[in-house]
Amino acid sequence: MPQIDFDGANSLVKTDKIQGQSGTTVTVPTGHTVAITDAGRLTVAGGAVLAGPTDAKFLAKITSGQANVTGDNTLYTATGAIWTETFDTGSDFVNGTFTAPETGKYILGCLIQADGLTSNHTRSSLKIVTSNRSFWVMDRHIWNEGAGVSQVRFTECVVCDMDASDTAYITFQVTATDKHVDVQVDTSFYGALLA
Amino acid sequence: MKLTQRQLKVLNHVVVNGQEWADNAKKESSVLAKVAKYESAYDEAVAKGNYLNRQQRDDEEARLIQERYDNAPWNIKRERDYPSLLECVHAILDGELDALQAKRKIVKERHPKGGN
Q1: N or C terminus: fewer CB in 10 A for chain B?
Q2: What is the CATH number of domain A57-193?
């Protein structure tokens, strides 16, 4: 089997040389690395480009609890200056809205920490709203499925297609009578470019 | 960005508000790329007849989902309205089964067997 020796002495391996090999595997010995210089990305068969360390990825949490945002069928859109970013590679997340910097497949998810639930709160829905489509990721009886406790947490996730400049945000809605449902501080929104 | 009527129609085929989306786009090239990407899908959808743009499709989907929710079978509606498991456990431990059954009876009468 042919091997390429990365000896740290400016070894140069030309594409045509690799293609000329009769074997099928290139092994990088322990202690050696392969540096990808094309914007930190790796292109694989079929043209798929694997996201690199500088590509879009974000994690943000609600800065402080948002009281009485829904419960009476109010559609709560979780946008505004209520978010604190844990990280935001590329600065694509602003006030609850993620804007795709480029066309690609993204993974988006959220964790909702809802509080103040009572037996008056029945149907609840959660959506991850992107420009190309809305993902109705949850539609359930929040009180009964929460076993009748006032605070519940749930996570949802989607993989979606986004075009450059498309946006994404989350909405949360609880019915039916009392606007006493809070969104608490563990509520998070996160995502990353997959490819 | 000022859109042509066709560009706006193509964008409205994909997003809820094409003009707003274009106004928020960071680059004009992104707008043009999105229009180019979805032009043929828009033309095909129009050619099929009974065309609905994205907003209209979303509205129709929401209407159908609400209709399914409202017209769910009686057993599903009872499940939604019955006391929660925690309430049942408390009623058992606190000796309040009669009150619990009264609540259940109200739900059963509200959603009679066989109805929707």
Answers
A1: C
A2: 2.60.120.40
